[in-house]
Amino acid sequence: MFAPVLIVASVAMVTFQSGTPVVLPREDDIVFDINETTGVIEKGSADAFDGFGYLSVNGAPYEAQEPFTFMDWDDESNGLRTIVAPPILMEFGGGADPVYHLEVSRKIYVPWAAQKNYIRYYDLIHNPTEEPHVVNLQFWGNVGRTGAAIITTDDGFAVIGDPADMQVPRIGLLFKRGPIENFSFTYTAGTASTEYVFVIEPNSSIAIVNFVAQVPDPSAAAGSAGVRNLIRPLLSSDDLGEDMEDLGEKPDFEYLTEEEILLIMNMFIDTDVNMDGRVNILDMICVRNNLYVDPESASTPRADVNHDDQINILDMLCVRNDLGWPF
After folding, report:
1. If you classify domain 11-262 with CATH, what class do you get?
2. What is the DSSP string of 276-315?
């Protein structure tokens, strides 16, 4: 499992310089060049992207009005780098509809370790009003290569690339884990989009997490930001799909606080049966109450923790082994 909060030696906050994309450094030099206003990946390694990671809320784009900050965690084991995009107050309604505001912010993270070739977007929506509001949140962007198509897709992730050209960098997307209502993923003409529709209660917050991975062409020259690309064998599409599936089973929430993790609505650990952000005795009770019941007719279908189409003692053991999460 993972730790939601790690102890680090020190944290330095640096303000972005205006006018150029900011590269989040990595041990293997994969390029994630971040636009300083929107937070999108501009090109990535070997032009894998053409502006990817846009955030839209009820049709309005996130565009920061203040400089991003750059968190340099002095941690020799990870060398974490995180971008904190400032909150903005977005106005909605008007005309016949009452005007209301939602506060939107982003936290963008790249792990330092080799082989973790992904970026994580943590997008937080806060409702400061006294009324509930429907939110249509879109996380979307464009790939950088002509001919790229869906190679692999499954419940919660997709792999995009050119099936006829293994030298075109593969892109992996992880957009959900667990049952979510009112969710859709589309890919059309080089544009991928995930859409989440939910109700946000008064004076409360909801977070969405999306992971974007890239596997660059090892023969390519320096990336768009002037940083050399990783030189290693190009992963096959099957490997990248397995990477996305593994990441979904154990999502990387490192350097998020416990409070931040509890706000995430689109990814859950399987053993959190009642989806309250913890694995505890209540989850054991959920499984016990559904023992030997078919998952399709169970009062809590998620009680089939290990997804073997049975609810039995094995599911109880799975929950027991994760008791105390998050830890």
Report:
1. mainly beta
2. SS--SHHHHHHHHHTTTS-GGGSSSGGG-TT-SS--SHHH
